[in-house]
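Build the 3D complex.
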Amino acid sequence: MSVVEHSRRGEVTVRDLSKSFALNGQRLDVLRDLQLEVRGGEALAIVGPSGCGKTTLLRVLAGLEQPDRGEILIDGHPVQGVGTERAIIFQEPRLLPWLTVLGNVAFGLTVRGLPADRAEARARHYIRLVGLAAFEKAYPRQLSGGMAQRVGIARALTVQPGILLLDEPLGALDAMTKLTMQEELARIWREEKVTMILVTHDLEEAIFLADRVLMLPNERGSQPRLIDIRLPRPRDRSEPDFVAMRRRLMAEFGLH
Amino acid sequence: MTYQGLDSSVPVPVNVAPGAAILRRGAVRAGAALRRYGLLAGFLAAWQIGATGGWINPTVFPPLDAILAALLQGLSGGALIDDIAISLQRSGLAFAAAVAIGIPLGLFMGQIRAVEQALDPILQFFRQTSALALYPVFILLLGLGEASKVFVIFWATLFPILLATIGGVKEVDRKLIEMAATFGAGRATIFRRVVLPASVPSIFVGLRLSATTALLLLIAAEMIGANKGLGFQVMNAQYNFQIPQMFAAILLLALLGLTANAALVALQRRLCRWAELSSR
Ligand SMILES: Nc1ncnc2c1ncn2[C@@H]1O[C@H](COP(=O)(O)OP(=O)(O)O)[C@@H](O)[C@H]1O
Ligand SMILES: [Mg+2]
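Done.
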């Protein structure tokens, strides 16, 4: 590893991570001795069959779940619990229905004690970034699913985290909105220069957004695999290389 | 303008004369009012005509003008004013105490699982015991004066508020709490910024229920052992066979209930505008 890489913010290291749950009195090993290095500013996609532990891994990374063994290091320092350098975006937008779009986006900052006017000034910047400037005063109930999810993204960005954790953020959106949002996520990632760890069940989304794809297996024996996506950006879904990469990932999944 | 109010995306036909539009809007309003209050107006009209025409017994159901006259006389003479004041004082004091104790206690109990579990059986037991059945006990303890009356109303109004507040706190979406926690919010912040606002609609359900209960218990308490108050006036007028006066007091009680409910609804509209947006 070079010195330059070390000085960058948003580096995530996962060491010997294990996590199990008790399910009906039985122990369910979800993550076993997982090792992972995510470079600062990298976009990593986590894919895998349903129930393989994608959400669990992301929740451990976010500090919402305590690992059984192993540790998480951010920029070389071990971390416990939630922290200001990480922000998580869930599959549901989880907006507070009694706050306007502006209030929701400013929420993370006001919770941290920033005065409302300064929090709102910064929130406005990110509301513009996700293209919702006209809806600043709207309440969550007045938004479509895609708009609400963008509010959630803006709220996470407003606290200016070094690491953005996303758990199937576009999973509940319709196909058209999803495509637009993927473009938007690619742009936001480029502009904000954050480390992005994105859980998705959509292989095309993973190839479109990620530098590397982590495939989590569900059978006990097999190992997680990392696949480099060496495609020029901005990416084009119809390019032969893109299509070939998708075919390769599907083959890895055993779909072809 | 009329169409735009409904759906701004529909192009407005420009050749509608403004006079016709105003007429039509007036007709729509009148129709809505008729649907809402038509039956009530018909009922009142039937009462008035029936009583004056002798189809119903006017000694039991005096004509409305006689009731209104009795009401105005009672109000201008000041006799009913005293009763209104004392009734308002009793129910207001009890309701305020129930709010001041029920909401904070409910917020506390809803937050802490162990406390809620320990107190729930007692709460359910007390709730199922009619406050009126306990009134004699309160009279024994507090005497036949104001204290026992206020206390029995307080007792009955406390439970709807308390239970609704506990329910509201317990039903707060865990996912929202977790979201706040990821931004570094501590227990106190989560309580203030998530739990409290999320419980407000449920608390209002309790408040409105309590207001109704307060009035019910007020009347009962005043009928049992009082020499003042609207509930007493209903009983007293009936006893002295002053039927218009009796209905005047009943009318005042109904107005009191309507006013209390309207005030709570208005407050709820102000505090829960976000919830209104969906339910319309
Ligand atoms: N809190 C929990 N308690 C018990 N089992 C859990 C819990 N969370 C997740 N699991 C189990 O762990 C496994 C992985 O879950 P999850 O990480 O949500 O999968 P994914 O997101 O990949 O679909 C599943 O079998 C699930 O049932
Ligand atoms: Mg999941």
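Residues 214 and 226 of chain A are 5 Å apart (CA to CA).
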